[in-house]
Design brief:
The protein has two domains: about 140 residues, P-loop containing nucleotide triphosphate hydrolases (Rossmann fold, 3-Layer(aba) Sandwich); about 70 residues, no CATH class. The protein starts with a strand and ends with a helix. It is globular and about 50 Å long. It is α/β, with parallel strands linked by helices. The protein is built from nine helices and nine strands. The longest helix has 13 residues. The protein binds adenosine-5'-triphosphate. The site of adenosine-5'-triphosphate (ATP) has 11 residues, from strand 2 and helix 1. This is ABC transporter-like protein. GO terms for molecular function: ATP binding; ATP hydrolysis activity. Pfam families: ABC_tran.
């Protein structure tokens, strides 16, 4: 099987605090995976390492066989950080055109136009990113993460700050993409709608993995999936 994301024996410390403790998992190409875990489990740290933003202290991480900070991986990867910071002093349109140019996309203006329309940012295209509401900043960050139709998409809490119609819009946008997904979230409905396989981490290690179907099967009759996951996380603590 071909893996699009590989993390092997990853260790990451912040000072003396062990954030990732020998974390290993793989995501096959085309896989739609959710990354779940209690607060502080190491999800965002994992995403930062996979995106090449941060280096592990030990272990190995690969994106389609490349180190995440390589030019090849950067071309293949899209990353939506938990607290995205677009260029605050550029407008929405300028942010999109600038990043499209940096990514070497063929027609940055057309790409920017398309993303503005896809995410319904028309009325904000001339607004400085730093002046946008949190929700519109999130929409811009999503546009920046997916503009190059990445093969591998890392999404850290993708629906944060979005109103309900926009959440639905973004879900259908993501559903239409054939990228490999790793989505870190606390919202089970996102995992249910966008992914079919779950990785659960706790204290920086992988503690459970399985399909959404397996997860559902662990529940009592009519038990909400949130309750199953809560039980799982409590038992594994
Ligand atoms: N820059 C940092 N310096 C020190 N400790 C950090 C730093 N970043 C994260 N940590 C700690 O590492 C642990 C893992 O953090 P991380 O953000 O990866 O967890 P998470 O699973 O994404 O949590 P949450 O669900 O609360 O967002 C936490 O205990 C956090 O306090």
């Amino acid at each position: 099987m071909e893996y699009c994301i590989e993390a092997r024996n990853v260790v990451k410390r912040y000072g003396s605090f062990l954030a990732l403790n020998n974390l290993s998992f793989t995501v096959p190409c085309g896989g739609k995976y959710a990354l779940l875990g209690p607060n502080g489990a190491g999800k965002s740290t994992t995403m930062k390492i996979l995106s090449g933003l941060m280096k592990p202290d030990l272990g190995e991480v690969k994106v389609m066989g490349y180190p995440p900070d390589s030019t090849e991986a950067r071309r293949l990867l899209g990353y939506l950080p938990e607290d995205p910071l677009p260029y605050r002093n550029l407008t929405v349109r300028e942010n999109l055109e600038y990043i499209a140019t940096l990514r070497g996309l063929e027609n940055p203006r057309e790409v920017a136009e398309k993303m503005i329309s896809l995410l319904e940012l028309e009325q904000y295209q001339g607004v400085l990113a730093g002046k946008l509401s949190r929700g519109n900043q999130q929409k811009l960050a999503i546009a920046l993460a997916i503009m190059h139709n990445p093969k591998v998409l890392l999404l850290d809490e993708p629906l944060n700050y979005l109103d309900i119609p926009t959440q639905e819009k973004v879900i259908s946008l993501l559903k239409g993409m054939d990228s490999t997904f790793l989505i870190s979230t606390h919202i089970m409905s996102i995992a249910l709608r966008l992914t079919d396989y779950v990785l659960v981490i706790s204290k920086g290690s992988l503690v459970w993995q399985g399909s959404i179907q397996q997860l559902k099967a662990m529940g009592r009759e009519d038990e909400p999936i949130e309750s199953v996951v809560a039980r799982l996380m409590t038992e594994l603590k």
